[in-house]
Every structure is written in structure tokens, then in C-alpha cells.
Amino acid sequence: MQFTAKMIPLAGALALAFAGAASAQEQVVKIGHVGPISGAIAHLGKDNENGARMAIDELNAKGVTIGGKKVKFELLAEDDAADPKQGTAAAQKLVDSKVNGVVGHMNSGTTIPASKIYADAGIPQISPSATNPKYTQQGFKTAFRVVANDGQLGGTLGRYAADKLGTRKLAVIDDRTAYGQGLAQEFMKSAKAKNVEIVAQQYTNDKATDFNAILTAIKAKKPDTIFFGGMDAVAGPMLRQMKTLGINAKFVGGDGICTEMMANLAGDALGDGQVVCAEAGGVEEAQKKGMDAFKAAYKKKFNADVQLYAPYTYDAVMVLVEAMKKAGSADPAKYLPELARINYNGVIGKIAFDAKGDIKDGTLTLFTFNKGKRSQIAVVR
What we know:
This protein is α/β, with parallel strands linked by helices. The protein contains 13 helices and 15 strands. It folds into 2 domains: 24-148 and 285-360, 3-Layer(aba) Sandwich (Rossmann fold), CATH 3.40.50; 151-279, Rossmann fold (3-Layer(aba) Sandwich), CATH 3.40.50.2300. Helix 10 (262-266) links the parallel strand 10 and strand 11.
């Protein structure tokens, strides 16, 4: 048959029809991520977001199908600036955008209030890093986390401070956030059970830069260990001021200070072996090769090192999608039951949830710093 100019409109119409049919077959699945992309701990929020973005890009490159339909994943990233009010606003924005699932938030203080908004909308939420026990104690069927909680984290650190560091006189500082306060309470509970005397308890906030008054008061009590419940952006300057005041106590904290950035923030005040911290997660020897490969791929993609929880946001996205695949649907109501009973082997190891949404058999990794570099002490359960 001879092709004529008159056929061009028909050919165009057919091409559009085929394109429309193809796009109709491709389902768009929106996954939200929320973290502090601005403010003092923006480096940690961006790290989390990068982990989620890495997972989305890999999934799209693979060409995932759900329920027989090819899927295109979109990441809707929001900034909560580690502020509870901004966190709930971001959560509502994602709900209004009809996301199929959420990975976040990073901080307990934003995760907890946002969780009610997601629960009311029936949207599954996996936090990669919120550790306050209250998050999963609210009874929301949509709330999950892939890290150990503060009960495990604070308890382990408290026992370590008593048994391994020989702590007998303890001073405690927290930043009054849901994370910092909750972690400090669990640490003190564990330390007291080991007959450690708490000689001082002081408070600051997550934006403070001057700690001379509280540190001077603490110095008079002569503690051998100071515990800080808060983030690296505060801990770094605090260590500098401890050095200026001649306070030589051990400095113990949770995952918020257990970052690669701590060396930059504390500078030469970060003495070898002085700081002990715990990350609410960690890989045992069997997963080490996979984690090393992830870190290398992350470095290549973003030209930056993993700060803390990027592997956890990466796995959280993968877990959401695995539940969707098992359910044959990205509809939250349909895949939520599959998410609750998921059994997934990720970069961080085995991921399965208990009845509350907490990770089963969560690991903890203890670290210290030597010559400005974070070094692992042990992985414990």
C-alpha cells in the first residue's frame, strides 16, 4: 500500500492512541519522604532523603510491576525542619497529594504528631530513624519503624557506661525534644539499675550554642561520664566548651551524635575514645558486604558519604514496595496487611515487624571516635 499525505493525520491519531494506552498501563505510585532538609541537622535529613531517592531510582530502572501493571515510582520529598508544626503540615500535604506510602519522618518529635495524620488517612508510614517508644505505642496500625527504639538504645548504653566505662558518677543533659528526653530517661533508668549515681541533670534545647552555665554547674559535681540526649549539631559545640572548661569526662549519647559529621563539629575537642555512642541499627558480619556495596554506590551517586540512616530509608522504601507487590496493589488499604507481616532481607538485614510495628530483633551498634574517625566497637541485640 502506498503511504500518502492524507494518511498523516490518521497515523498521528493512531500514535497518540497507542501512547495513551501505554501510559494507561503504567501506574504512578507516589512515595512520600519527610525529614529536616533545612536547619542545623539538614545534613542528616538530606542523608535520609538520598537513601529514599536511591531506592526510587533503582526501582524505576528495574521496571517493577504491581498487579500485572508496570509502575513508575515518584518521590514526593518534604522538609519538616525538625519542627513538629512543620512536620504535621508536611504530613497533611502528602495526604492531600494522595501518596501511597510514607518513609519518615526522621525525628521522633515530628514523627509522632505526623503519625496520627497518616493513620487517619490510612496511609502506611515507616520511620527509618525515629526511636521514641511512644511512636508505636499509640496503637496506629499504619505506623512502623526499621530501627530499635529508645528502650533498647538507652538501656544498652546505660549498661555499657556502667560495666565497660566504669561510670559511677553520671551527669545527664537532654535537649527537651521527644527524642533527646526519651533517650535520656531510658539511659538513666538503665544506669540506676547498675547503681550509678546521677549527680546532675541539666537541660538545653536543640538550637542552643552556649552551654557554659550548665557545664560549669556539672563540673562542680565531678562526674566521670556525661550523657547527652540530642543531636550532633549541639553535641559538637558542647564538646568544644567542655574542653575549654577542662571537663575530661567520657561523653555518651545515642544515634543523634553517632555521625560522621561529629568530627567536624567537635574539632580537636573530640578526644580518642572519649565519645561512645550507639546507632539504633547495624549490620552483623553476614550483612557487611551488602552494606559496604551500598555505601560505595551511595558515594558514587551523591558524591558524599553516608551520614547515618540512608540505608534504613532505602530499605524502608523497598519494604513498602515489596508489600505492594505481594498484595498486587499499591492501594494502602490492600497492601497494609502484607506490610504488617512482611519478611524482607534488606541492606540492614532481616526486616519483620511485631504487633506494634517495631522491628523484631533490632540490632544496635556501639561506636567510638579515634583520630577524628568513627570506629565500631560492637554490634549487639
